[in-house]
Recover the amino acids of this structure.
């Protein structure tokens, strides 16, 4: 059996970051590949999204084990407030490390979120913090791929492979990618429901000025956003349309009352 780890929502302005680890046997993985498994970002249009959803559900059904971590927007904002001591890469690596530690597969492949050598260094640092008795054996670095072998107190051995574009090169990481994307999209719809917002008003949640749903949301809920009312927004994001709202001067009482009178 093999395991893959990937995330969805890293660059999103709305909603959580989802990190997923899945383990599949080779027969199941081969079957999924024959059925069209690929990186979640390569599915487009309504038919592509439907196919990705079908695959994500099938992967979860076939998975021998899985781990899902949800990092909410306020945790990301808090992390970025601590820069340079902390950052988004380190936050992700800590959570990926937890998944690596919990998965029982002997081979785990991870889609790198930074230069593989840096990723490996930080991941090993975190794994050593989880278990002091870990034995680490380095492997030769190959272009875009960094790997090492860990042995725990129970003598279980895991080979960890960190690769750039792993979600396109390794089907097991493609599987984790599809599940992560499915869960994140589902979470956005749940957020809209929890906050009594119009369905699909958050779109895909990414800072894209060409996304009419996202831009309409910013315009409609301008005052609520300025007052940090919504907990699912990453207020630390340096996206100009968002920051223009946050940094805009507060309305005077007269302006507020006038807006109320006009129903705006």
């Amino acid at each position: 059996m093999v395991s893959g780890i990937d995330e969805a929502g890293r660059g999103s302005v709305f909603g959580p970051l989802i990190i997923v680890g899945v383990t599949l046997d080779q027969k199941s993985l081969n079957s999924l590949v024959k059925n069209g498994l690929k990186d979640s970002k390569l599915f487009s249009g309504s038919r592509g999204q439907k196919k990705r959803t079908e695959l994500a559900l099938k992967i979860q059904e076939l998975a021998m084990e899985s781990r899902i971590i949800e990092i909410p927007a306020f945790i990301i904002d808090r992390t970025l407030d601590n820069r340079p001591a902390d950052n988004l890469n380190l936050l992700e690596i800590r959570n990926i490390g937890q998944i690596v530690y919990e998965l029982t597969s002997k081979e785990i492949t991870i889609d790198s979120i930074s230069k593989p050598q840096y990723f490996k260094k930080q991941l090993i640092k975190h794994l050593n913090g989880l278990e002091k008795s870990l034995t680490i054996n380095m492997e030769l670095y190959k272009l875009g791929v960094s790997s090492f072998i860990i042995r725990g107190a129970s003598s279980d051995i895991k080979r960890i492979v960190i690769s750039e574009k792993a979600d396109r090169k390794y089907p097991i990481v493609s599987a984790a990618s599809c599940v992560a994307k499915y869960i994140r999209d589902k979470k956005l719809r749940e957020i809209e429901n929890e906050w009594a917002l119009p369905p699909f008003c958050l779109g895909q949640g990414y800072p894209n000025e060409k996304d009419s749903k996202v831009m309409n949301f910013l315009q409609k809920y301008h005052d609520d956003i300025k007052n940090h009312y919504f907990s699912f927004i990453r207020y630390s994001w340096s996206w100009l349309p968002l920051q223009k709202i946050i940094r805009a001067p507060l309305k005077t009482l007269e302006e507020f009352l006038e807006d109320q009178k006009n129903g705006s």
